[in-house]
Amino acid sequence: MFRVRPAPATPGQHFYDRKPPALGNRHASCAARLVWDRLVELGRPVRHLEPLVNVVFAGDSARARGRFRGEHAESTRAGFHRALPDARAAHGTDADVYRAVRR
After folding, report:
1. First and final C-alpha spacing in the chain
2. Each residue of 53-84: pLDDT tens digit?
3. 17 within 8 A of 30, measured Cβ to Cβ
4. Taking the CB of the first residue and of the last residue of the chain, which one, N or C, has fewer CB atoms within 10 A?
């Protein structure tokens, strides 16, 4: 699977870190978008996940939040950004949180 490592890492090495020096501007992307971009580049059938990637990016970046304001508001009300804190409160491990959010 993909590993997130501190810089200096690059998507070409399959490390997805958005902070300098990997990317010059930490607000230009997020780890989810870097992974998604790579999968699209490889021809994987993931284009349908773009709305989710945009919402994750909006949750990670105030600048992106402005671009995806409506999507982020809906996610906070009843989507991913609502499910994540609920899952964290109910589960003690990252694996359990992941499974809960995935459901």
Report:
1. 20
2. 999 889 888 888 888 899 999 999 998 889 99
3. no
4. N
The answer to whether 72 and 59 are in contact (CB under 8 A) is yes
Cα separations in angstroms, 57 against 44, 91, 92, 93: 20, 24, 25, 23
Task: DSSP for 13-73, please give it.
Answer: GTB---STTTSS-TTS--HHHHHHHHHHHTT-S-GGGHHHHHHHHHHH-HHHHHHTHHHHH
> Model-level pTM?
0.65
Burial zone of 47 (CB within 10 Å; 0-12 exposed, 13-18 middle, 19+ buried): exposed
Cβ within 8 Å of residue 82, ≥6 positions away: 75, 76
Task: Tell me the two tokens of residue 41.
Answer: 């580049």
Which tokens go with 10? 């690059």
Q: With bands split at pLDDT 50, 70 and 90, how would you rate the model's confidence at 26?
A: low
3 DSSP β-pair partners? 15
